[in-house]
Amino acid sequence: MFEGLPFYVWALVGLVLALAVVAVFLIAKSGSKRRGISDRSIRLDRILAKAMPRIRAHWRVGRVARLFFRDDGPNPVTRKATDAVDGEILAYFERLKALPDPATDEQILMEMKRLYEALDRINAATDYCLLETDERELLVTIFIAAAEACGIDSREYDGEPGGEYRDF
Questions:
Q1: Which of 117, 130, 147, 163 could form a cystine bridge with 126, CB 3.0-4.6 A?
Q2: Is residue 166 a contact partner of residue 123, using CB atoms and an 8 Å limit?
Q3: Do 60 and 127 belong to one domain?
């Protein structure tokens, strides 16, 4: 049936198939941008997806440990306080996603400042017992990774952009 077709027909069929493959590749590659999802948002989602299970596990262990080691009254570190921190972290990531792409260092640093101020208020409400060394070591690295995903170079800030805004 196809044996008698001239060479140019086969060449045309091959060209059409090659163009179709290229078109499918380009559509797949640009699909996330057409839906309004930037590469930066995808990187931020990955950072957050990796971080939140670690943070939540840390809160569970920390609440139990503080029950045994606090002898000067009731434990001010409550589920409500840790949920408030989680909420601020989620809001920080959403605000970073909403920044223009590319974002300036000043825009990113202002979001870090906003986050640190909110966390400081939560920490003050727990008599400064919620955000201590272990929490700082866990959380700040996540916040910096998110800022770097937005384009900030942490080396320009001695490894900790926004550190001047953090009190915990």
A1: 130
A2: no
A3: yes
| 10 shares its domain with 70 | no
d(CA 101, CA 27): 21
Name the residue range of residue 154's domain: 37-165
CA distances from 50 to 9, 61, 79, 83, 146 (A): 52, 18, 21, 18, 12
Write down the pTM of the prediction.
0.74
Residue 60 CA neighbour count, 13 Å, CB half: 6
* Total count of domains within the chain: 2
Give dist(CA 98, CA 90) in Å, integer: 13
Are residue 5 and residue 86 in the same domain, yes or no? Answer: no
Mean pLDDT of successive 10-residue segments in the chain (168 residues)? 63 61 56 63 97 94 63 74 96 97 96 98 92 94 98 95 94
